[in-house]
Please model this.
Amino acid sequence: MARRFDERFANDIRAALVAPESFGRWPLLWIVAAMLVVFLVWAFLAGLEEVTTGIGRIVPTSQMQLVQPFEAGIVREIAVEEGAIVEQGDVLLVMDDTEASATLGELLQRQAVLQTRRARLLAEARGEIPVFLHVPSNGIEEGEGQLFSARLAALEQERSVISQQLSQRRLEADTLAVRTSETESALELLERELSLAERLFERRAIPEIDFLQRQRAAALERRELAVLRAEAPTAAAAIAEAEARFVNLETTFRAEAREELTGTIGDLAVIEESIRAAQERLQRTVLRAPVRGIVNALPVTTIGAVLRPGESVVEIVPLDEKLLVEVQIRPQDIAFISPGQSVSIKVTAYDYTLYGDLPGTVNRISADTFTDEQGQSFYRVFIAIEDNSIGPDSNPLPLIPGMVVTADILTGHKTVLDYLLSPLQRVRNEALRER
Model:
């Protein structure tokens, strides 16, 4: 019969020599070893994302819109405040337009005068009556109507004078023709008397003095007839001249009207160009928003302030354009970043646990580093985002330029084992090299 081991009466040495061997610790060792193997397999297979984190802000794709006056002026009204959302075309600031309005008014008055004058000259050139002659709508039309009537009356008066002169020339020609005919008849009688007297004188029937008197009378009639016949072409020429003047009078009147009309049309074209310039100048006294956006800065806050040409008076951050995320990355991290990499963006203004992150893609990287106010160098990395809002589609929240974000740029993948062994690998590569 085997002896029973009683632990109550054994000391430590005796217990160690006599106590039976225990197998209770081996299962625990096997469990620990199995867990270690499983952990190593998991660490070898499980993947981790390598990310580079940067802090930045949301920016518009286009630059800040600066509203500047084209000309110097005085501020009459300020229609917006900093932080206000404005639509494209909204009034931002109004400048005093007294001078521009006065200039435009003078040009419009001059245009009205030239347009009425053009209508009057066109009627004169066509031989028509202007429509405003009988019922003028303003003082300009009344004045041009009076001028038209005066010019037409002068034309009629000159036409009457020439008509009277023509009648006089024709009367003179008729009188000349009658006198010529009478002289020819008288000369014919004198020639017969002279012929008869010559035969009687040859027979000594009449004294010589009578014969000579008849010769003298015939000679005088011949001379008178020659003079009258010589005046006939002159009279005909005078009639032709008067007729030509009468015919050309209206032609000349219309030609002068057309010539003046050409000059008036040219002056009107110049005035219309000046009016367009004056209208643009007047429109520029009202500064409007070029895009939909947020008023970021409003340097001018005083009514009556004097603005200089090209001075920035309003800064607008565009809202409707696609937005970008601009983050700052340290130079030691930039080597692993390239365009096209995926980015997870967290907007600090919205709770990440409620609204999630914003997906993006690296768009471009600055060619050189920049330095901040603390003297730290950084690269500017621009990240494109798909939408200008964050959160569920049922209740999207807008993204506004200037919001601060944290961007995690996915630069690669590695296993948990690689992560755990990286310090050892770094020590192996860098240790025992000091002098």
